[in-house]
Design a protein that fits this description.
It comes from Streptomyces mutabilis. Keywords: Signal. This protein is α/β, with parallel strands linked by helices. The chain is globular. The chain has helices at residues 3-7, 102-112, 152-167, 191-206, 208-212, 224-227, 239-248, 291-299, 310-329, 349-361, 372-381, 384-390, 403-406, and strands spanning 56-58, 63-65, 86-95, 118-121, 171-174, 230-231, 253-254, 258-259, 266-267, 270-272, 275-279, 286-288, 336-341, 367-369. It starts with a helix and ends in a 20-residue tail after the last helix. The chain has a single domain (87-406), classed as Glycoside hydrolase/deacetylase (TIM Barrel, Alpha-Beta Barrel), CATH 3.20.20.370. The chain has 13 helices and 14 strands.
Length: 426
């Protein structure tokens, strides 16, 4: 069944996702005065020399090169007849630490369940309110943002979570900046405007020290120009021109679309790792794997519906995700892609549901709960002919004669330099 029919016109994520903004941080130390650093119109900035190969500060010291990211497994090619692992990606739009402490909470949930995740950071969460005019959103006046900005304590808290998350093997992607949806929003942006938005999203991460005046704080332990390889667009809009811009700027994947539970393929040079449609218990149509879409189909655009139904609604989301997982696990083994926000909609029932799904699936045999970076590393390491064959399997379809027969041919060797290639002989 086609995705457009399954979703029944329910895939658009409206601007109500701004409820996931950093509204809980209210401490202002007043140290962020001065001119600050606006998002540039072109990439610039060089790294300082590394002291004894330990830490090489970049730009104003907001970020630093500290070596290869820890806890990243080396991807390996499937052996002849080998069943693919079941990948599951938990991803978070507009990631930031606020008074709900959900970023830190789900970091701990991931560690306890052998999982890593992708956190799509909104760049304006690294920009204090008093410096809002440094943000120049395409087709909007300076200082406009539909999800607001942050304060210095909120930025400090978010920086701490980003640092720890990266050191634990999680990925820091981007959800861009102002989260503009609908007319005049990201869906109307040109390729050039998308590039300007991406450059600003990077720049706010690379200059948070200058913009907050926190010059003695520890840097983020990564080079964001190299770290940033993927994104999800606000409201899943503007994908066509974003993908063109992203390909030119070194991105490797996009997760802004809607798809069935089938194996990913590349579109316009980027891996299309869209969110997916899974069973919606009690309904004849399927549901997108995102908290907001479950909410809209349960309580409408009201983020706090009937309290008597909160538990049921959370169970409905949990069970739908678990049914989608089991369908893939027993079937075609297509990666399951799940997207969420750090939110408290309907009493926090969706956060409870996601946590229960993590606990249920990430500890199973042959399951890998990974970031998008780890997933696309694995996909790049595979024989393209093997991936093409995997894409012939429909939703929930296991090979009729078993995996050993289905993938029995010897895969071609990985090209030199591709992840999964044999190590060079000494």
């Amino acid at each position: 069944m086609a995705a457009t029919h399954r979703i029944a016109a329910r895939t658009v994520i409206a601007a109500a996702v701004c409820a996931a903004s950093l509204a809980g941080c209210a401490i202002d130390s007043g140290t962020g005065s001065g001119q600050g650093t606006r998002g540039p119109q072109k990439e610039k900035g060089e790294a300082a020399p590394a002291p004894k190969n330990a830490v090489r500060l970049i730009g104003d010291g907001s970020t630093a090169y500290t070596g290869a990211q820890p806890h990243l497994p080396r991807p390996e090619r499937l052996k002849p007849g080998q069943k693919p692992p079941q990948f599951v990606v938990f991803s978070w739009d507009g990631a930031g630490e606020d008074s709900q402490k959900l970023f830190s909470h789900f970091r701990e949930v991931a560690k306890e369940n052998n999982a890593t995740m992708t956190y799509f950071l909104s760049g304006v969460y690294m920009l204090p309110e008093e410096k809002r005019d440094l943000y120049r959103a395409p087709q909007h006046s300076p200082g406009r943002s539909d999800i607001g900005f942050n304060d210095e304590q909120g930025i400090a808290d978010t920086v701490e979570q980003l640092r720890l998350a990266w050191l634990e093997g999680n990925e820091i992607g981007t959800h861009f900046n102002g989260h503009f949806c609908g007319p005049g929003g990201v869906g109307d942006w040109s390729v050039g405007e998308w590039k300007a938005e991406i450059r600003q999203a990077k720049q706010f991460v690379k200059t948070w020290k200058t913009n907050t005046g926190s010059r003695n704080a520890a840097p983020l332990p990564f080079d964001y120009d190299k770290e940033l390889i993927g994104a999800r667009t606000p409201c899943l809009e503007g994908q066509e021109n974003f993908v063109k811009a992203a390909g030119d700027m070194g991105f490797r994947y996009d997760s802004s679309g809607v798809n069935n539970q089938v194996w990913p393929e590349k579109k316009h040079g980027l891996w299309d790792v869209s969110m997916q449609l899974v069973p919606f218990p009690g309904h004849t149509f399927e549901q997108l794997t995102m908290d907001y879409n479950f909410m809209v189909n349960q309580s409408g655009t009201t983020t706090q519906g009937d309290p008597a139904k909160h538990e049921f609604w959370g169970d409905q989301m949990r069970d739908g995700l678990l049914q989608g997982f089991q369908r893939a696990y027993d079937g075609n083994r297509a990666p399951l892609i799940i997207g969420n926000h750090f939110e408290s909609w309907n009493g926090g029932t969706y956060m409870r549901a996601v946590e229960e799904v993590v606990e249920k699936v990430c500890t199973k045999d042959e399951v890998r709960c990974v970031s998008f970076r780890q997933l696309v590393d694995w996909l790049d390491a595979q024989d393209p002919k093997v991936l093409k064959k995997l894409r012939t399997l429909d939703v929930g379809e296991a090979p009729k004669k078993g995996w050993a027969s289905f993938l029995s041919a010897d895969p071609a060797p990985a090209p030199k330099g591709v992840p999964g290639a044999p190590a060079a002989k000494p």
